[in-house]
Design goal:
The protein is of the alpha/beta class. The protein has two domains: 2-121 and 289-319, Quinone Oxidoreductase, Chain A, domain 1 (Alpha-Beta Complex); 124-264, NAD(P)-binding Rossmann-like Domain (Rossmann fold). 30% of the residues lie in helices and 27% in strands. Strands 3, 4, 5, 6, 7, 14 and 15 form a seven-stranded mixed β-sheet that branches. A six-stranded parallel β-sheet has the order 10-9-8-11-12-13, with helices on both faces. Helix 4 links the parallel strand 8 (143-147) and strand 9.
């Protein structure tokens, strides 16, 4: 089968397409004929060798994808050969024509969703759900502000928050991005390039401030976020690319919290609740993954460059079939 192989950590070009054996399923595992693979920022850090936990080389990147079950191992009960599935978690990588995963990591893909949309589910939706409901403990009636809401995690968060009964605010850096946010369900959208957009956000809350902020670029925005919070507000740090100086006093009068998160820290119980909630949302049509750009599998290097560029509109995926 064709797969992307990394033999040394480095620039995107270290990812090369190669022929490797098709994986075989062990007990409780399935092999999926991958039609689309999700591209996530964390995979660029791993490829570059800068992530805290690195795989042994050579390796195939990726963990998210969607396709059709091609083989099943012993004791697999819920899935059958030929089932359409999306999966999150592939020990051998998902940037390939075939991927192996545990039965518990693969979930039915409704007919209304394409394989590209299925590949956009895993990390983005799990991250958004855990940020909103496990870390922020957001409840209906609260206001959530999503800083950088047009990418994979941001668009997932908009849909999840709107479905739960929150007032949803988000920023986009382009007119097209802000239009897509409104179409995705946001109540209020703002241009984070505008000079006084933070003042506009505060006005939209009637001066109260926002209850929850999901922050994708904390090294740029965290200090400003703290001035937007309502009393007992929470900032959930989802992404950061460096250090930042903040004024702790901005947290004091508000009894505010700054909470970090990594999706991989979720407990097994949390993972199960995430997947149950997501599967229900995809089945009833509440959740609709947004795909921004599609690249052929061989162009994985270009996809890694694109996923780190500002102004993303939806999820970036690799198409292998």
């Amino acid at each position: 089968m064709k797969a992307i192989v990394v033999k040394e950590f480095g620039a995107p070009e270290v990812m090369q397409i190669a022929e490797i054996p098709v994986p075989k399923p062990g007990p409780g595992q399935v092999v999926v004929r991958v039609h689309a693979s999700g591209v996530n920022p964390v995979e660029t850090y791993i490829r570059a060798g800068t992530y805290a936990k690195l795989p042994a080389l050579p390796c195939t990147p990726g963990g998210d994808g969607a396709g059709v079950v091609g083989q099943i191992g012993e004791n697999v009960k819920a899935l059958s050969v030929g089932d359409r599935v999306w999966f999150s978690g592939a020990p051998g990588g998902s940037y390939a024509e075939y991927a192996v995963c545990a039965e518990s990591q693969a979930h039915p893909l409704p007919e209304r969703l394409s394989f590209a949309q299925g590949a956009a589910i895993g990390i983005p939706y799990a991250t958004a759900y855990r940020a909103l409901f496990h870390r922020a403990n957001a409840v209906p009636g609260e206001t959530v502000f999503i800083h950088g809401a047009t990418g994979g995690v941001g668009s997932a968060a908009v849909q999840l928050a709107r479905a739960r009964g929150l007032t949803v605010m988000g920023t986009g850096g382009s007119g097209q991005g802000r239009k897509s946010l409104l179409e995705n369900g946001a109540h209020h959208v703002f241009d984070h390039h505008a000079e006084n957009y933070l003042g506009d956000v505060m006005k939209a809350t009637g001066g109260k401030g926002v209850d929850v902020i999901l922050e994708m670029l904390a090294n740029v925005n965290l200090a400003k976020d703290l001035t937007l919070l309502a009393k007992h507000g929470r900032v959930i740090v989802i992404g950061s690319r460096g250090k930042i100086e903040i004024d702790p006093r901005d947290t004091m009068a508000r009894d505010a919290d700054i909470r970090g998160m990594v999706t991989g820290n979720a407990s097994e119980e949390e993972r199960q609740s995430i997947h149950m909630a997501l599967c229900a949302g995809f089945e009833n049509g509440t959740l609709r993954p947004v795909v921004g750009r599609e690249f052929p599998l061989a162009d994985a290097a270009q996809a890694h460059k694109a996923v780190m560029e500002p102004g993303a509109l939806g999820k970036i995926v690799l198409i292998s079939a």
